[in-house]
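Model it.
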Amino acid sequence: MLDAMAIARLQAREVCCNQTFVKITAIETLVVNARMRNWVLVKVVTDQPGLYGWGECTLEWKTKSVVGAVEDLSVLLIGQDPRRIEHLWQIMHRQYFWRGGITNMSAMSGIDQALWDIKGKELGRPVCELLGGPVRETLRLYDHLGGGLLEGMYRTGDAEAFGERILESMVRGFTAVKAMPIPVAEMVESAAVLKHAAKCVEAMRTAAGDEIDIMLDLHARTTPATAIQFGRLLTDYNLYWYEEPCWPEHVDALAEVARALPFPIATGERLVGRWEFREVLEKRACSVIQPDISHCGGISEGRRIAAMAETYSISVACHNPQGPVSTASSIHVGFATPNYLIQEVVRADVPWRNDILVEPLDVQQGICQVPTAPGLGIDINEAEARKHPFEREVTMAYFHKDGSVADW
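Modeled.
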């Protein structure tokens, strides 16, 4: 006579055997040109009618490389069950001899997002609920004042333009903004350049008052010494964070900058996989870590990186200057992550940004609500998206005063 445990095992096996087997039949890419960058959208299609998922692996200036990487990875996944997300992540990461790298990890990220989207749609649940459920009722968003436009203002000496742009964000409901008032820098900067950058920040603080949080992005243009030079002139403006003061692989240099300045250091957008984040966290070289869900290894890896950061009391704020699928994925991670601080959004890079979505994504205000739609909660209007086909990105060529190549 069977005991209760044996009966339970037989019942579980019966349920498993009766479960519909879902197979991946295709992995497609859709490239959408959005002026500064080409959004690389990934669609994972299954053999179940209407069951597919969307992800994003936008990688500026490497669009064709990442599209090729998605094609390479698809060879491993066609015929697999898309609901085995972790199993497929391990396959993508480990079953080719060459691992990692920004191109391969970006391709993995887009596919991983699409797998989570499928999982949520099949179960009728939002992805954040599958990640353990929301840990907050709202998620704070920050606005980006724009890179190229403000750089033009910077070069013309129009510091007040920074103040005018921050007021536009405040009118839309944002209580936090990020800007790039630091120019392409020399290895050690002049007093005139340092003081002009400080005037740009002063204009923002004067216009916004102390109720608005201001982040500065250095884009790793500076050496550690120059980052400290700039930072010391900005101490009176109470920055929310000081982003990428130098290249993130220079972990000791990041730590040096962090110890020299009184405001939080943020970094991580160019790091991929938990292994590249480990030393930054161990050395407490930042206060805010910024994995990019479209580069770091997707939703699956972003969650692992966030958990690592939590053990060091380091906050998470996912980098996200990409398209709407990346934004949706980041928001789901944000709602399910205890040590999440704030979410970057782009709202005005192209006027048709929401047109490629079947339903618009509401990130026009300073906060967003918990997602409730199944999966990532978005779908792509492919006909609209195809109106903006691939165009080669503009090459960003920056040089020092003596003609030598500069980081931009």
